[in-house]
Write a structure and sequence with these properties.
This protein has 218 residues and is of the alpha/beta class. It has helices spanning 20-29, 52-58, 79-85, 100-109, 154-169, 186-192, 201-204, 209-217, and strands at 7-10, 34-40, 65-71, 89-93, 113-118, 136-140, 174-178, 196-199. The protein has one domain (7-217): TIM Barrel (Alpha-Beta Barrel). Bound molecules: D-xylitol-5-phosphate (DX5) and zinc ion (ZN).
Length: 218
């Protein structure tokens, strides 16, 4: 059914960091249109991963959408470098930004699509004043830092709320979910309102990656 269709965004966090070019290629070959890039600073998220140089080096290798998820403190400090690197979406955590509206304006002025993310403990109500400005809302369904965790089910209700608010107010944002998404729970996430399904382990650990994308997107 058309309304339940979603796009898969395989996350490079579960790829072999020694060969990201091959990982990007495998995402394209599997039929996905988005690549999710998890950026962690060791402060907001208890791990380290990629930076703007990763995006800069991948950009000439792929025409897929580079969906950057910044799990970092002070996200405003990174807007220019990610824009210069060729990021398409810049999604930051509302918990990490003192002036979220300012960050959104900076992202758009730099020519990127603006996204905001909430961790499992943050309700979506705190986004009320900025939802009209956003291109994407990312619901993190695990605590930040690591792939391969189990989805926290309360995240699913956030999708439903975001979908209801979007239709009530004719907002335009895409609704994305990230963390513990598998072929087993993708249909439920779509049904609850997800337009984008981020999947790290479920994609990179699968032998038949094309089948995973088809099942995620359905
Ligand atoms: C959490 C990351 C993860 C990751 C997804 O910090 O944002 O959610 O991309 O990994 P999986 O799909 O393995 O949960
Ligand atoms: Zn992510």
């Amino acid at each position: 059914m058309k309304t339940n269709h979603a796009l898969a965004a395989p996350s490079l966090l579960a790829a072999n960091f020694g060969n990201l070019a091959a990982a990007a290629e495998s995402i394209k070959d599997a039929g996905a249109q988005w690549i999710h890039i998890d950026v962690m600073d060791g402060h907001f998220a208890p791990n380290l991963s990629f930076g703007p140089k990763t995006v800069q080096d991948l950009r000439p290798l792929t025409s897929l959408v580079l969906d950057c998820h910044l799990m970092v403190d002070n996200p405003l400090d990174f807007v220019q470098s990610f824009a210069g690197a060729g990021a398409d979406y810049f999604t930051f955590h509302v918990e990490a930004a003192r002036h979220s509206n300012r960050v959104i304006q900076a992202i758009k002025a730099a020519g990127m699509k603006a996204g905001v993310c909430v961790v499992p403990g943050t309700p979506v109500n705190v986004l009320e004043e900025i939802l009209g400005e956003l291109d994407l809302v990312l619901v993190l369904s695990v605590n930040p830092g690591y792939g391969g965790q189990k989805m926290i089910p309360t995240a699913l209700e956030k999708l439903t709320k975001l979908k209801a608010i979007r239709s009530e107010r004719a907002y335009k944002y895409l609704i994305s979910i990230d963390g513990g998404i598998t072929t087993g729970n993708a249909a439920l996430a779509r049904e609850k309102g997800a337009d984008i399904l981020v999947a790290g382990s479920a994609f990179f650990e699968a032998a038949d990656k094309k089948a995973v994308i088809q099942e995620l997107e359905a």
